[in-house]
């Protein structure tokens, strides 16, 4: 068979891959996107941040997303025992979108991939990338669903393979995350939460375990009467529970009075219970000759602030901007123009994630008498505006400002 060639090969049709493909199609690049699974397929990562809307819009996919009928989202609610607080993302420091959606990823990822296809991306489901020989062009070996294989020569590769982390594994780029190993047990429930139960379906609910400050639950309402429900903890915490994953999840949810009350009529596990462990990951480099790593194929921190898809989109946008300059014949410095700007926002999120698990961030958000302007700056971070250096808590490179705020809120 004749050797197939493409200007750009995108590996994986998750959010990072599809948004990158759509952006590159807007530039007129030839894009081939290979996805080893058949869509629609389940994926975790269901609560978006308002910042992500900017990238969906820039990719030309806004109408597709709006028309899909997902659950509107305008903020985050936090509960710990008797304490509650909520952030409305429309009231924030940074300019830009203040609302977004909570999405069933099976549908959301399909909508984005089909949108990228409509814009001229060649999209193949069931085709798995097996090996990559970097270079210009790179040579890529692919297996079709029927087991037959073919080779592609690609001018540039965007690895958007997510948790599969294809190029980091193939090219020995894996580097340890500095977060401890944590895991999650989760499922979808038909929640039957009464309208008068004090549950705002327009917000994600993050609940801290009544006794363990580093154990937390997510409750993410969808537009179809279901919620995504999950709990995150270190493996040693889960080991204390017996039974099936469903029984473990139910037992841990049963330890929180507010969630127990909300979910008293719930039909459990309308989707099978799943678990995932050790998802935090990093790489020694986010790019190399002829390739760049997008989304979870690069660095993944932690789910607590729902930042994963936003970071995936940001990586797609930075990479497509770099590829536009490359196509125009400019010399692209991938470290300076892709990796450093991407990692800057990731670093902002990291400071907040660390402060969350250490308990300091929770002191800040539950403080009874917060300063309105500081709260708007925090709201911006929670809304995903982690790259807006006008926000003092983004510019706070050493984390000093966050520590001072923690101290002010302690005692
Ligand atoms: P993915 O969505 O993983 O897509 C990668 C695609 O590549 C897959 O479809 C896969 O089949 C395909 N692929 C893999 N290998 C190959 C191959 N060799 N050939 C072809 N195709 C391949 N993020 C949020 O924004 N909000 C949340 O609320 C949130 N909650 C989370 C909760 C938990 C417990 C965890 C672990 C993560 C959460 N995340 C959340 C993070 C989110 O899941 C990821 O950041 C996001 O899915 C990354 O998107 P991606 O496009 O990089 O990869």
What's the structural blueprint in terms of helices and strands?
Layout: E1 4-11, H1 15-26, E2 31-35, H2 51-58, H3 62-67, E3 71-73, E4 75-80, E5 83-88, E6 100-102, H4 105-118, E7 122-125, E8 128-133, E9 138-143, E10 149-159, H5 166-170, E11 174-175, E12 183-190, E13 203-208, E14 216-221, E15 226-233, H6 235-238, H7 245-253, H8 257-262, E16 267-277, E17 282-283, E18 287-288, E19 291-293, H9 308-327, H10 334-358, H11 360-365, H12 372-382, H13 392-395, H14 400-409
Helix pairs in contact: 1-4, 1-9, 2-9, 9-10
The chain binds flavin-adenine dinucleotide.
Flavin-adenine dinucleotide is lined by residues 11-17, 34-37, 43-48, 128-129, 160-164, 166, 184, 276, 279, 294-297, 300, 303, 306, 308-310, 312.
Instruction: Briefly note the CATH topology name of the largest domain.
Output: FAD/NAD(P)-binding domain
* C-alpha termini separation: 72 Å
Mean pLDDT: 97
Bound molecules: flavin-adenine dinucleotide
- What low-confidence regions span 5 or more consecutive residues with pLDDT below 50? none
**Main sheet overview:** 8 strands, mixed
CATH class of the largest domain: Alpha Beta
């Amino acid at each position: 068979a004749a050797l197939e060639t493409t200007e750009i090969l995108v590996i994986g049709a998750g959010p990072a891959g599809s948004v990158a493909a759509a952006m590159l199609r807007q530039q007129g690049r030839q894009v081939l996107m290979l996805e080893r699974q058949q869509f629609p397929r389940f994926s975790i990562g269901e609560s978006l941040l308002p910042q992500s809307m900017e990238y969906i819009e820039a990719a030309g996919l806004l109408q597709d997303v709006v028309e899909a009928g997902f659950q509107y989202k305008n903020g985050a609610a936090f509960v710990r025992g008797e304490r509650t607080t909520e952030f409305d993302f429309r009231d924030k420091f940074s300019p830009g979108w203040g609302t977004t959606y909570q999405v069933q990823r099976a549908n959301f990822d399909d909508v984005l991939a089909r949108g990228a296809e409509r814009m001229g991306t060649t999209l193949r489901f069931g085709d798995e990338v097996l090996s990559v020989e970097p270079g210009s062009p790179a040579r890529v070996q692919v297996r079709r669903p029927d087991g037959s294989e073919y080779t592609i020569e690609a001018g540039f590769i965007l690895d958007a393979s997510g948790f599969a982390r294809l190029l980091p594994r193939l090219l020995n780029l894996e580097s340890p995350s500095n977060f401890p190993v944590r895991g999650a047990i989760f499922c979808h429930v038909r929640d039957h939460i009464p309208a008068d139960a004090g549950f705002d379906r327009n917000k994600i609910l993050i609940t801290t375990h009544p006794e363990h400050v580093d154990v937390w639950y997510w409750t993410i309402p969808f537009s179809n009467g279901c919620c995504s429900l999950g709990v995150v903890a270190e493996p040693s915490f889960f080991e204390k529970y017996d039974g099936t994953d469903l029984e473990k999840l139910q037992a841990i949810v049963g330890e929180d009075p507010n969630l127990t009350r909300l979910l008293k009529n719930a039909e459990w596990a309308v989707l099978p219970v799943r678990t995932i462990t050790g998802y935090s990951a990093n790489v020694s480099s986010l790019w190399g000759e002829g390739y760049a790593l997008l989304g979870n194929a690069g660095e993944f921190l932690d789910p607590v602030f729902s930042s994963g898809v936003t970071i995936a989109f940001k990586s797609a946008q930075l990479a497509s901007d770099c590829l536009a300059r490359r196509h125009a014949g400019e010399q692209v410095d991938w470290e300076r123009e892709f990796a450093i700007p991407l990692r800057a926002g990731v670093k902002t999120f990291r400071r907040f994630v660390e402060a969350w698990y250490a308990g300091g961030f929770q002191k800040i958000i539950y403080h009874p008498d917060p300063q309105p302007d500081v709260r708007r700056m925090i709201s911006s971070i929670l809304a995903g505006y982690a790259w807006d250096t006008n926000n003092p808590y983004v510019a706070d490179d050493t984390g000093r400002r966050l520590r001072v705020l923690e101290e002010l809120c302690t005692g």
